[in-house]
Each structure stands twice: as C-alpha cells, then as structure tokens.
Amino acid sequence: MFKRDRWDEILEALNANKLRTAMTAFGVAWGIFILVVLLALTNGLRNGVLKDFGDFATNSMFMWTQGTSKPYKGLPKGRYFNYKIDDVAAIKSQIPSLKYVSPRNQLGGFRGNNNVVRGTKTGAFEIYGDYPEYIKQQPMDVIQGRFISYSDIDAKRKICVIGAGVVKGLYDKGEKTLGTYIKINGVNFLVVGTFKMSNSQGNSEEEASTIYIPFTTFGQAFNRGDRVGWMAITAEDNVPITTVKQQVFDLMKSRHKVHPDDDRAIGHFDLAEEFGRINGLFTILAFVGYFVGILVLASGIIGINNIMLIVVKERTKEIGIRRALGATPWMVKGQILQESLILTILSGMVGVSFAAIIIWGMNAVLDSVGEVENFANPSVDISVILTALLILVVSGLLAGLIPANGATKMKPVDALRVE
C-alpha cells in the first residue's frame, strides 16, 4: 500500500534529477498521445465514410436490369428487359428469408430540368414511386403529416411526401404545406407529409430535394404501367443478404429468359458487402493505430527502464542499508516497481489529457466549418481509455521489473561497499 513515507520517497526520487525525469516522462506521454490521437483519427474517417450509408438498412442490396451478354432460348445477346411488379410478389413468395422487397421508380433529378411547379415557383427534384415499407429500409423523420400508406397504393391516390429542400424551394417561410398541391410534370399531387433524413448521408441537398409518391400512382401518372425501375431488397436480420442474393438473381433470370450464367444482365449493389468491406478496412487501420502507438510508447518505456536502472545504481548504498535493517527483497522490489508505475501513469495521463484537448479542438473546428467529406466526429470511447490505462500499468511494471530484480540480487554487504 502507498503510505505517506513511501510517497515522500517516490517524489524525492523523481525530483532528484528533474530534467531527466521530465525527458523520460515525455517519451511515455508522447507515445500514449500518438496512440489515442491515431485511434481518434481512424474513428473520424470511419464515421465520415459510414455516414454515406446513413440509416439505410445495411443488410440490403439494390438490384436493376442491364443488357444481356449471352443469347438464350432464341433471344439475342444485348437484349434489354424490365422487371415487373409480379416479380416482386414472386421474390417475396419464393425467398422467405427476405424482410422487405421494395419496387422503385424514379423521375427527374434535383440537378435536372424543372419538373415541379407550385404557383409561380418551380424546381428540379427527385421523384420516387415507392411502397410504404421503404421508410423501414431508409428511416426518415416525418416532420408533418404522414408517409405513403397501402390505401394510397391500392387507390392510386395522387398524394406526395416532400423533403425539407422541396419545402424551402416551393414555399415561403412559415407557409402551410399540408393540404396544398404541387404539379409534377403537369399532374397535380396533394401534399400529405414533409420529412427530413434522420441521419444525413451522401449529398444532403439531394436528399432534401426528394418527393415520394405511391408506386402505383407513379406508374399511372407517368405511363410506367407495371414496370419496375429497380428494387431495394433487405434480408431478415439473421440472414446476410450476400448469402441469398444469388437466389434472387436466379429467380429473375428464369422469369425473364436470361441465360443462367449471364452475370452481367442483372446489376446490383450489395450494401452489406460494401459495409463489411469498409468495416474490415477500418478494423485494420485501428490495428495499425494500436501497433504504431504501442511502438512509440515502447520507446518511452525503454527510457523509463534505463532511468530506473540508473536510479537503482545511484541508490545502491541506500538499498544495502535497507536490506541490513531487515527489508525483504519484495519490499525493495515493490518500491522500485511503485516508482516506475507512478512515473509511467502520471506521464501517460498527461499524454491522454493533451490528446483529449487535440480531439476536442478537431471537433470544434469541424463544428465551425461544417460538414467535411469522409471525416466526422473524431473520438475515442471509454474502452480505448481503459485500454490505454491497462497498457500504462503493464508498461510501468515491465519498465521497473528489471531494475527491481537487479536491486534484490545485491547482497547487503556488497551494496554497503559501493562508494
């Protein structure tokens, strides 16, 4: 246990050569500082990149059609085909491990030609024809009103849910939105809800400039019939979409007379696979952060080890007197280890404190300049701090172990002879 006398001895030993102690402590502080800051930067990159996924269900994929690359059953190579609404029902019935299968159609774009009119105001916005379950795949905050319902789908109602960017572009500040009409490509739609993304991803301006209408209404109003532009498919939570997507492809190929080996006819983007790949990359980066930080920290620990060797040599006669007065080897070893441990932990905490200041400064700068591409909220959680503390304790013990063992091997008579 630490008694007052022991504290006084430790402080006296550390103050005996202040410059030497400060330089040694700097090595440990710098090592732990590098470790924490590297992990914070890695988390900042991870947060920035994963923000592009937003809140979209990561166990999902998007699937669309492309030109065939092989002739099949009398049909030529290079043939184009479209998904139909019946394909959605077939996928749901034949592949039960899927949670959501959402057919989608799209019109226009927020950087395209003006396609929406309200009074004297016009704008170019993304128009999507969707089913109600899409809000479960891409969560969004409905600010006013509601999202699309199945009664809208069945009745093919000309209603729409508009993003915050659409409200800003077509309405005056404070103006009522619910119950008003906007005209999309010449067709009037009743506004029944407004929304914003619950976690902005990708291009936030594009997301805010989005309008959702019922899928069936989209097909009727814009002459799409039962055609499906693409599908957003989410698997059950315990079933990776990557393991079942081939079943979906095979089913679509058989329904549209596509060669079973034609892998180019169906385009897809596996969000789960991409998410796993990015997570794996940042796991490697975190490992590199730990590796580099521990290497830098090791140089500081070697410095403490050398200092403790010098301290033991300088106090050889003192150790001999302690042994002669009855101090056990463990008492001597304990004092050396405690001095090494205190020096390591104090200097390490200084490094952690400076790292915390730097991390706080980075977040303050990010808050002031706004969103930075692929970088957001650099931080470390409590587990990293606890890991750093554990590393410091182990390092302190290791740094003092060799000097402590050397001190206990000295015979009192030999120690007293040293001048």
From TrEMBL:
Statement: the UniProt record of this protein carries the keyword Acetylation: no
Keyword Transmembrane helix: yes
Positions of the MacB-like periplasmic core domain: 21-248
Record InterPro entries: ABC3_permease_C, MacB_PCD, Macrolide_Exporter_MacB
ABC3 transporter permease C-terminal domain segment(s): 291-412
Membrane-topology descriptor: Multi-pass membrane protein
Keywords: Cell membrane, Membrane, Transmembrane, Transmembrane helix
TM stretches of this protein: 21-41, 287-312, 341-362, 382-402
Protein family (similarity comment): Belongs to the ABC-4 integral membrane protein family.
Name of the protein described by the UniProt record: ABC transporter permease
The organism's taxonomic lineage, starting at the top: Bacteria, Pseudomonadati, Bacteroidota, Flavobacteriia, Flavobacteriales
